[in-house]
Amino acid sequence: xxxxxxxxxxxxxxxxxxxxxxxxxxxxxxxxxxxxxxxxxxxxxxxxxxxxxxxxxxxxxxxxxxxxxxxxxxxxxxxxxxxxxxxxxxxxxxxxxxxxxxxxxxxxxxxxxxxxxxxxxxxxxxxxxxxxxxxxxxxxxxxxxxxxxxxxxxxxxxxxxxxxxxxxxxxxxxxxxxxxxxxxxxxxxxxxxxxxxxxxxxxxxxxxxxxxxxxxxxxxxxxxxxxxxxxxxxxxxxxxxxxxxxxxxxxxxx
Amino acid sequence: xxxxxxxxxxxxxxxxxxxxxxxxxxxxxxxxxxxxxxxxxxxxxxxxxxxxxxxxxxxxxxxxxxxxxxxxxxxxxxxxxxxxxxxxxxxxxxxxxxxxxxxxxxxxxxxxxxxxxxxxxxxxxxxxxxxxxxxxxxxxxxxxxxxxxxxxxxxxxxxxxxxxxxxxxxxxxxxxxxxxxxxxxxxxxxxxxxxxxxxxxxxxxxxxxxxxxxxxxxxxxxxxxxxxxxxxxxxxxxxxxxxxxxxxxxxxxxxxxxxxxxxxxxxxxxxxxxxxxxxxxxxxxxxxxxxxxxxxxxxxxxxx
Lengths: 254, 304
Fold this sequence. Notes:
Chain A has helices at 5-14, 29-39, 68-71, 80-89, 130-136, 167-172, 208-213, 233-243; strands at 22-25, 46-49, 53-54, 76-77, 95-98, 102-103, 109-110, 113-115, 120-123, 139-143, 179-183, 187-191, 197-202, 220-227. Chain A is α/β, with parallel strands linked by helices.
């Protein structure tokens, strides 16, 4: 079955989620991935949104994390202050899903500014809840296209901490958890014992050369480098017919 | 004590040039009509405070109302960036825009400090991030009890908060359901509160379900009856989010001339929200109509 790289990214991300996870869902592809997971292998997945909806089960795809379909039928809706305080800070959530403009070898994410903070080349939206999500969940999952611009050795600005300067650096700050996987349009990357990103599986049709070309440092490959499994027909159908029919987050033309 | 008034009078009396203004709401119940009235009245040098400055702040920035944005996520929710915000931040068009930046948790904690009359609020936020280096109102503090540490944020106390709810009585006791966002804490932190609602209801309606009351009259200065005042955002149970408008804005706002034309047509070109709604048209509003889904009634009990 034909599929596109963006569809594969969503499906690969969905497979990182487990049935009993509580996940803080981000907008865009993370939102799609969580909804794919919930409608396939993880029906009990508890989806929590920054807007404070807990246990959302949207009847149609939300465009934003504050859409009314996330509120109707939710288990609970918390005011923003409580959601960050009691859910995230207190460590009640397992997984956080993030994107970003830049991600570096330690999994630090920049969604604030390209260039100098006070004289930016590109002013990005900023943290929102991303900094606290990255700091407080057990496992952070990151989805981003693979390009040299997006994968510098060091980000211009740390919006959301990964392993900061390595696993020990993160521990010294008193943060638990950390980034678990980075899903790109070429590969699924994970983090070694030093806290450095490596390629764990290549997507079908992707090559080591393409990954090296589009990564800003000499990224390493797993000794037992795998291949990302193809999406299943049902997963593709969900994306194309139910979750992203207008192709806002996926390119579905193959 | 609150007064029922028109949007024009509430903005004219409540908002002054130079004020810090918080138009509250997390995607839901965003006071677009109030923002448009602020633009029409040509308020200037405002500090626009809000966790999620979306289209309404982009429009106010494009119209030249703002000198500063205090925020935690400046984007078009689900669509992308805010072009006018970016032009102001990157190039100073149409005005320079000073930024004071937080995370979501940091900003609502700062409002909470303001609402609670505290000198700061502690949180486990900002850890590992570069943000504290760029905001003097974020500081690391050590625990007085052990060797743990947290960050502290200084209180945020806006001059004016505009908040929306589905319904309120004439005194400003308001029921809000669906996503509450930072509405309550923004109202409690602000000096002046303008409450705008879809519906006015008798006080008995409010008293029939006190758990649903988010704002009480003693915190409200102005009450405005403002149907459809949140479009293109939404009011849970009343109308849906006009996602098309959010997607269209990405195009419109990418070009300064198109923004001007849009403001001329949809803000300066209409008298008030009623004219805006008439111009929007029946078909578009009907498309946003949800089916009814009532919560089960709650038995509060009548005790003798």
